[in-house]
Amino acid sequence: MQYRRLGNTGLKVSEISLGSWLTYGGYVEEQNAVASIDQAYELGINFFDTANVYIRGEAEKVVGKALSKYPRSSYVLATKVFGNMGDGPNDHGLSRKHIMEQCDASLQRLGMDYIDIYYCHRFHHETPLEETLRALDDLVRQGKVLYLGVSEWTAEQITEAVHIADKKLLDRIVVNQPNYSMLQRYIEKEVIPVSEKHGIGQVVFSPLAQGVLTGKYKKGELPPAESRAAQKDLNLSHVLTEENLDKIEQLKKIAVEEDLSLSQLALAWILRQPNVASALIGASRPEQLLENVKASGVTLSTDSLEQIDEILNA
After folding, report:
1. For residue 41, what are the contacts with CB-CB under 8 A and spacing of at least 6?
2. pLDDT (tens digit, 9 = 90+) per residue, 22-61?
3. Catalytic residue flag (residue 54)
4. What is the phi/psi pair of residue 47, to 5°?
5. Is 262 left (phi over 0), alpha (psi -120 to 50) or beta?
6. Core-most of 6, 79, 258, 314, by most CB within 10 Å?
7. If phi over 0 gives left and psi between -120 and 50 gives alpha, with beta otherwise, what is residue 174?
8. Which residues make beta-bridge pairs with 18?
């Protein structure tokens, strides 16, 4: 496993990290969830991601319990605040009240004294940005949070947050968590350039496009019974298109030439970006990690990168 600095900080995280969205705390049996976390740790993954809103705290409980057997200094743990955690008017968003209350609630569920990275899960248009940033700064000063991040913020929102933090001498955002894959590249145009300018790194989610870039789905065939596309409460129609499936068939040929699986190719392609600190994957079974971690340290040939660009831009 290779490690990278997170943005312009001294913190080093594994190139492949393990998330818990759509997996732990309800969708996957706890035994498999814990086994996957243990496998990840053994493979050198030191970066684990969850959120308060994942099954309303249940994922945090599973992740915290699984990691409790390891030295706290040996891993980096991230969680998030924003989503609905109750039915009251102040049970969501990025107000000072919600942030402070949810940070303490997350720490209790995780069974930990501090959170390494605390993300604003989305941008909140109803809360003044300075209020949010001051609350986050207070959490850092209290020692409850070490680093601050955002998820799915626009380049303009990130820029405004940096300017306010600098003007008011508040702790800066150091990481953004966007959706980024071969099939979702919106951050390349504005978010990455702005992030590079301000020393902010990317920790990307859905690098395999919710499993579409594993090659398990094929044109004219029903999705595998245990796949995400087969779940009634998930809609993958926006990525599971005929056009994308055609691209995937072409990408498979490049993967063979590089002696990689399609998922390894997709992850190595993500990690070609120096601004990306880590690619966040999910795992419902420990064996899924064995293949994906091999993407760490892979350098794709110039010829392969050019061919991939042609395929994706077609």
Report:
1. 67, 70, 75
2. 554 555 677 888 899 999 999 999 999 999 999 888 999 9
3. yes
4. -125, 120
5. alpha
6. 79
7. alpha
8. 48, 281
